[in-house]
C-alpha cells in the first residue's frame, strides 16, 4: 500500500533507559527508527530491517527484542533499555571489558545487540560454548567468526554466580 | 635497500584496539547516525527488469507529493556528471561499456538505479518512489554464464556481440607434451556461486555542496576515501582539493566499500543540483542488488602427474561472469588474474595453460570481495591436487610434500606467469605437523568411518598476494594508489597525533599504526592518537584493499616515527648540550647513559613555546613519510588450512568439526588482531563454501534479496578456528618486513572444506563440484537426488 495521505500521528508514553518519554510518532515508524532518529539513541543499529541480523536488539519489557520488527506505537506503556542505558547502569561492564580484552568485536556494528543478548543468555545460566553458539544464532556478526565473542561471553558466564 | 630492523614492544604485543572502547558502549559514530540540518533523504527507483529499454519516465505524481523536493533521472544529472568506463591498461582488449550513474536508456540488471527521489524523510521518498512510473520495453535477459556465451544468446552490449568482455590466454611450457607423457591425469569441473561481502553496516553517504566555492564535502562509509575524493572531483568537474571525503566508523567493508557506485555518485550530483545536503543510507534489500557481487565462475581443470608423483602441468579453463558492466574504477578483470596467476602457486611444475573468459550477464556488476580471485584459484588448484594425488595413489599431504616449493626453488618463476620471491611452505608444514597430530586425525577418521560415519579431511596449501605495488593499477592507467602516508605531530604535552592514510573498518589497522608509532618514537602507547579516514587531514594514500594497511601504511608510520625521533633527539641534544647519538627516547623520556634526563613533555613545551631556546634551529615537531612497495608487484603470505567435516548422508548437511589455519606473513604487529582477522576471513570463506549464494532465476531476477535468503554463517554453524603462526624471519626489503594478512583466511577456507567434503563422499562413490555445498548438491553428489 502506498501511503500518499498523511496518517494521523499517535502520542505514546514509554520509559526508555529509565526516563519517561512522551512523544508523537507516526503509526508506521519502527521502534528502531524512533529510538535512533527521535531520541538520538544511535547505539541501536539497523543491519537488515527484517528481523534477521539482531543489530537492532533492545530490551523490551525485560526481554531482548528486535526493534526493527516493533512499531514505535507498540512502545506505549513499555519499558525499554538500549545499549546506552545498559552501559550507563554498568550492568554490561564485565561483558564490555571482556569483549575488548578478547577482541570480540571488529567493526562494532553488531556489538550492542550481541552484548544485550549475551547478558540475557548469561542470566539464563547458559555458559557452555556450544550452547552459547546456539543462543547467539540470532545475532549475526560478519567480522569476527564468533569464536572470540563466544569465548568472551563464556569467560564472564564462568565468573557469574547463578542460582 | 631497507632491511628489516629490530622493533621493540608494543610492536608484536597482543593488544585490544583503542576504538573498541567506544564501540562496546554503543558510542561508535556511523554515517547513518547523523542527519544534516535542512537535508534531504534519498530513495532510489531501481529497475524491476534485468533487461529492458526505458521508454519513458513519468515522475509528475511523485513530484507532486507533499515533502518531495525533486525527482532526478539520468537526463537531469547529465549536465554536471560524466559517465565512466571500467577499463584497465593491462587488458587493452577488455570491453568496458560506458556507464552512467543512473540508467539512461537501457537497464541491464534488476536493481539498477533509474531515478532518485529527494524528500524530507526516507519514508516519504520511498512512497514517492512508488509513484514514479517507468514504461519499460522488456528485452531478453541472460543470467547464467554458460547461457551468456551460448550461440545466439542476446547481446547485452553492442560492443560485445558474444557477451565476452575479455579472453585471457596464458601458455607456458609444453603443456600438450606434459599431458601426453603423464603417468596420471585427473580432470575436474567446478562451479562457484555468486557471493557478496555483506558488511552489517550497509553503504551510506551524506553529501553537502557549497556552490559559491564549488566545495563538495562528503561523509561516507568507505574503505578508500582518497580514491573517492579523486573520482568525485573528476566525474563532477570539481577540483580535487575542494572535495573532502571523510569516513566515520565503518561497519565492515570486505571490498564492498572499495568501489565507486552510481547511486553514491548520484547523491553527490543531487547535492550540487539542489544546493541542499543529501543523505542516502542503503537498506538491506537494495544492498543485495546494488553492492558489488563476486566470484561467479565455471571452471574446468586438468592436472598431469608423473610416475614419481611430481606435478607436471595444469590446464585451466575459467568462465567468469561479471554482471552488466566492468566495475569502475578498478575494472572487473582482476579476478581472473588470480585464477590463472595463482593456479598451482604453491607447487613446482613445468607447464601451464590457462584460458579465462570474462562474460557479461544481466546481473549486478562484480567487484573485489575479500580475496578477489584467490579463493577460486586455490579451490581449483587444491581440488586438482587432491585428484592428482588420488590418481597417483599417494596420500594427499605426502603428494603435496613432494611438490611444494622449498627455499631452494626461490625465487620461483611459476609457469602460471607469476614470480614468487618468497614463500615459506616448509616452515608452514613444520608448524602444521607440530600443531596438529595428523596421524591421530587420520586414525580418528578411519575409526569413525568404520562406525559408519561419513567423515572427510581436507588439507590445502595457499598463497595470498598482498601489499600490491604500483605496477598493476598505476601502469594500467587506473587511479588507485599503492602508497600510504603518515604524518606525526608532537603536541605540547608530549603526546603524538598521527595522520595516517590507512583506513579502518574494524580490522585494527589504526591500532597497528598506533603500536608502530609508539615503538618508532619511543612513547607510551596511550600517548599516540591516530587519525584516519579524512582526505582533508591525511595525505594521499590507498586505504584498505588487497591486505595492505600495515605492510604499507605501517611501514610509512615507522619511517615517520623514526624521523620525528631523530628530530626530538637533536632538539634534546641542543637543550642538554649532549651529542644526540648518546641520547635515547624511551617511554616518553629522553635518556643518556646515566638515566632519564628530561621528559618528552618538557621538551615539547619548550619547543612549542620557547623555540628560541634551540640556538637558532627551528623546531619542526612534525614529520611525514610515505611508502609504496617499489621492489615488486606483491608480498606473499603462505599457509595451510585443514578442515575436518562430517556429512549427514541422509540430509546432505555438513558439520564442520575442526578448522585449522597455519599461516606465515612476516612480522606480526599485533598477534591478537591478526588472529581475529584470520578467523573472520575464514568465516567468510566457510560461508561461501556452505551457505552463501546470490541466486537468480533464468530471467535475471534476484532470488536472494534478504538475509533470510542469503544465508550468512551463524555462531552455531561454525567451529572454533585454530590459528597457528609459522615462524620465519621478517620479509626483506622493508624495515617492518610484514606482508598483509586480511584475506588469507578467506583464500583457503572454502578449498579446505571442498576437499574435506569430497574426501568424505569418496567412499560412497560421491562427488560434488559446485559451491556452496548445499544439502541439495550434496545429496545430488551422492546420487540420492537428481542434480
Ligand atoms: S535490523 Fe533488526 S534484525 Fe536486523
Ligand atoms: S564486529 Fe563487525 S559485524 Fe560484528
Automatic annotation (TrEMBL), chain B:
Keywords: Molybdenum, Oxidoreductase. Residues 25-140 form the Aldehyde oxidase/xanthine dehydrogenase a/b hammerhead domain. It holds the Pfam family MoCoBD_1. The keyword Oxidoreductase applies. InterPro entries: Ald_Oxase/Xan_DH_a/b, Ald_Oxase/Xan_DH_a/b_sf, Ald_Oxase/xanthine_DH-like, AldOxase/xan_DH_MoCoBD1, AldOxase/xan_DH_MoCoBD2, AldOxase/xan_DH_Mopterin-bd_sf. One of its GO terms (molecular function) is iron ion binding. SUPFAM superfamilies: CO dehydrogenase molybdoprotein N-domain-like (SSF54665), Molybdenum cofactor-binding domain (SSF56003). This is Xanthine dehydrogenase family protein.
